[in-house]
């Protein structure tokens, strides 16, 4: 079991090496959720993730111990397995300390994380479809090349480094009631819960997992929720919980919750729109829990850790577009009309006069059940919301067209 002393020592090592990120209230999110919400912006770290805290502490400890126990024998290098954020943390701080770094990443890892890891001078090896497969390969390479393996979460020094997040949060906002923390392997919440239990024994610590990867939830609660194959929150898409982290969580964490993919999507988009901050799926899971279980947190002072901001641009684009559809700001409607000159012009004019903007038009003659003299026109529209879609449809009906939202 790690303790508070290990975490305060880690904080001393990290001084000047990682950013003391802001922890501030979001008045708008507080109004929406019914809780007083404080956000810890770990996505502002140099590698855009809290993971560099644990990586920096571990690597610094390795260098210190090798210098003490084997003077004159330089550390050959380090190796890690990661879906991205731990990889970047290890790569960056290995480069800073002059160490060789090899990172094994699953093939599904977003390209932005791969390229960012390489930019820190690490050697990237893509192997396996899961973190477990990547881990097995990393251990093999570690043995073959005499590299020190740096686990992303199941390591006391890594957990201690991650726990420094809580030291900063409680220094900045000492009267928090509850901390809601994303959980993958469990390193972050294990460190945070250790600090909370030592400094604020009455504080509630709650973990959040994706319903597609509920490994820690199952392990702690004895449930048998099935595991999926992919998640928008790939940073917490861990198939097997850590042994060390599970022991800490079982003793020091109050509860674990599950959120769905749609909840996480909504949270990512809200943070982008409201807070103007870019957060990946894993970093938005805490807010997703507040949105899904508002009664659980109503009236409480809640601290959330926006633990990472490394999101694939294509995934972000898809999240934004899907969010616009859910909000009714992007709509697809089908219009039936006589297949004669001027029909399309009349439709587009009607839509324009109703105040909507046409993004796409698909003119369908062959693949339709309509009479041969008719044509089906599919429009993708930019609107002001769901009520505006109703206004557009009514305008089309008034102009003599059959129209419906798809």
Rough outline: elongated
Please give the order of strands in the largest beta sheet.
Answer: 1-2-10-7-8-9
Q: How far is the N terminus from the C terminus?
A: 55 Å
Rounded Rg:
25 Å
Q: Based on helices, strands and strand pairing, what is the structural class?
A: alpha/beta
- In terms of per-residue confidence, which ranges show pLDDT below 50 for 5 or more consecutive residues? none
Compute the number of structural domains.
3
Largest sheet: 6 strands, mixed
Assembly state: single chain
CATH fold label of the largest domain: Rossmann fold
By CATH, the architecture of the largest domain is named: 3-Layer(aba) Sandwich
Task: Kindly provide the name of the CATH class of the largest domain.
Answer: Alpha Beta
């Amino acid at each position: 079991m790690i303790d508070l002393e290990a975490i305060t020592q880690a904080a001393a090592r990290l001084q000047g090496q990682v950013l003391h990120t802001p922890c501030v209230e979001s008045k708008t999110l507080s109004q929406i959720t019914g809780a007083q919400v404080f956000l810890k912006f770990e996505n502002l770290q140099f590698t855009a993730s809290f993971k560099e805290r644990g990586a920096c502490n571990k690597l610094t400890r390795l260098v210190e111990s090798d210098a003490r126990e084997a003077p004159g024998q330089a550390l050959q290098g380090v190796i890690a397995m990661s879906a991205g954020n731990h990889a970047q943390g290890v790569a960056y701080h290995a480069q800073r300390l002059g160490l060789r770094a090899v990172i094994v990443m699953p093939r599904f890892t977003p390209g932005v994380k791969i390229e960012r890891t390489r930019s820190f001078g690490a050697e990237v090896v893509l192997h396996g479809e899961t973190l477990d497969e990547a881990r097995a390969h990393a251990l093999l390479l570690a043995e073959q090349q005499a590299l020190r393996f740096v686990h992303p979460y199941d390591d006391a020094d890594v957990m201690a480094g991650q726990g420094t997040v809580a030291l900063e949060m409680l220094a900045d906002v000492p009267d928090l009631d509850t901390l809601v923390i994303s959980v993958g392997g469990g390193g972050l919440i294990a460190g945070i819960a250790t600090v909370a239990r030592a400094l604020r024994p009455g504080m509630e610590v709650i973990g959040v997992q994706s319903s597609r990867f509920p490994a820690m939830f199952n392990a702690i609660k004895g449930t048998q929720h099935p595991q999926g194959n992919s998640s928008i929150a790939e940073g917490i898409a861990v198939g097997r919980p850590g042994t060390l982290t599970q022991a800490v969580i079982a003793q020091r964490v109050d509860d674990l919750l599950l959120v769905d993919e749609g909840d996480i999507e909504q949270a990512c988009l809200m943070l982008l729109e409201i807070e103007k901050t870019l957060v990946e799926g894993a970093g938005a899971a805490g807010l997703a829990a507040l949105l899904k279980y508002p009664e659980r947190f109503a009236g409480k002072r809640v601290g959330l850790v926006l633990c990472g901001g490394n999101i694939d641009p294509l995934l972000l684009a898809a999240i934004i577009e899907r969010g616009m559809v859910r909000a009714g700001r992007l709509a697809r409607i089908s219009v039936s009309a006589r297949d004669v000159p001027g029909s399309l012009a009349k439709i587009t004019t009607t839509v324009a006069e109703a105040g909507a903007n046409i993004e796409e038009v698909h003119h369908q003659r062959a693949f339709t059940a309509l009479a041969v003299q008719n044509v089906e026109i599919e429009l993708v529209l930019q609107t002001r919301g769901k009520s505006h879609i109703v206004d557009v449809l009514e305008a089309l009906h008034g102009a003599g067209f059959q129209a419906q939202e798809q």
